[in-house]
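Table S2 (continued). Query chain:
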Amino acid sequence: MDFEKNASISLSDYLHMIELKTAVLLAGSLQMGSIAGGAGEKNQQLIYDFGRNLGLAFQVQDDWLDAFGDPSAFGKLKGGDIMANKKTFLLVKALESASPENKQELEELLMYSGPDKVERMTSIYQQSGVGKAAQEAKNYYIEKAFACLDRISVPEESKKSLKELSMYLLEREN
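Corresponding output:
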């Protein structure tokens, strides 16, 4: 909860925070299900790792949707995280990779609450390539998740619903 109060954070700090906030919730839930289902320790760890990576991909996608998603499909006001000055993958990555001029404007926008804030910040995000970076990060974590799922010692048919759920979560527009 104190994460938002930190003035400056790195991308690795952000990823660690979402791992502790979002990813382990999903991972732990899946692992508890595997324990209840009688899975061995190796499969329990693999399903946990699957859930952790899926959770990371989900949160990065959620950050992207907040800035670039269609509000009518997403079901939230576009740029809600931007207006709240939330530390998101996009903001942290932009602060690390933006040009000096864009970085200065981002820092000024964090103290600004005008009606054009979302438009100005998303423009900087686009110029900095962080939307693409978020999509690449999401794909990286989903590949890691599926690699873990593939290694679980159960029939492929038993993994089908988890793969479908994963794709639903990551291809969603809301």
